[in-house]
Design brief:
mainly alpha; 2 domains; two-stranded parallel sheet; 7 strands
Length: 278
């Protein structure tokens, strides 16, 4: 495993100014901390400027400049004793065991970090579906997928709600391993939690867009249909669905391409074929 040190961390290691963190945890994000999936602990370090450790240290440094100078604290992306002392200053306590200190939601809140948009369980499920289907932050594609969900809900054969549409078996492939999906908070959180550390759904670059369109869908899906009334889509570089042009050329109705996805209708069924839009 490669370990990357910043210039300041290397300096500290050379002059033994303070023990350098021994666990590099780049993957821990603000969302991980806010949603309660992870924390940063004494002994951790991160090398990025936009990582939560550096952002927390920067705010601590600005909030308590005199105390920072007194203990010779500066933002260095390394969670050592001095960072623990600064967090103690934030909460008005003196920790006896510096190694017991962590950075969790309460620390972020007390430092004024902006909380993520709150989501109902249904909104969370739909946001997960959107980010599962499109990891890159391409708004037109996210919007297109959201429109397919809204169009299927309008037709009604997939269920009466957006969650019915999303969780119907064999419709959106990333749910297949979890079927049948229980619609309770703990089940959904476990799906989010049990991900590779470097590919957590809430850390994908499309997450904010997924949340945006999940909210809009829950409010009635009153946004422009950029798919032209599509009920299906697929990525031709990855799959060849049974209702698509290669396997069903006579019934597949291509409408348009958005990003990496082709959008259209499965003309083999009346409810899709006769759909004219919502």
């Amino acid at each position: 495993m490669k370990v990357y040190l910043t210039e300041k961390q290397l300096k500290k290691l050379i002059i033994n100014e303070e023990t350098v963190g021994n666990i590099q945890r780049e993957y821990v994000s603000l969302n991980d901390i806010w949603y309660g999936f992870d924390k940063l602990y004494h002994g951790d370090f991160q090398s990025t400027d936009d990582g939560p450790l550096n952002l927390v240290q920067q705010k601590l440094f600005k909030k308590f400049p005199e105390y920072a100078e007194e203990i010779n604290f500066y933002p260095d992306k390394d969670f050592g004793d001095k960072t623990s002392k600064m967090i103690g200053k934030l909460f008005g306590v003196k920790f006896k065991d510096m190694k017991s200190v962590s950075i969790g939601p309460k620390t972020l809140e007390k430092l004024g970090f902006k909380k993520p948009v709150s989501l109902t369980l249904d909104q969370l499920i739909v946001a997960l579906n959107l980010v599962m289907e499109q990891a890159k932050p391409n708004e037109s594609e996210i919007k297109g997928i959201a429109n397919v969900i809204a169009n299927r809900q309008s037709i009604g054969n997939h269920g009466s709600s957006m969650v019915d549409v999303v969780l119907k078996p064999s419709q959106f492939s990333e749910w297949n391993d979890f079927q049948p999906v229980s619609r309770d908070k703990e089940t959904i959180r476990n799906i989010m939690r049990n991900r590779p550390e470097d590919d957590r759904y809430q850390n994908r670059k499309s997450w904010d867009l997924a949340v945006k369109y999940a909210k809009l869908l829950s409010q009635g899906g009153n946004f422009v249909d950029n798919t032209g009334g599509s009920t299906h889509y697929y990525n031709p570089d990855k799959v060849s669905p049974p209702w698509g042009p290669e396997k069903s050329p006579k019934t597949w109705e291509f409408i348009k391409t958005i990003g990496n996805h082709n959008f259209g209708r499965d003309g083999s069924t009346t409810h899709y074929k006769n759909f004219t839009g919502r």
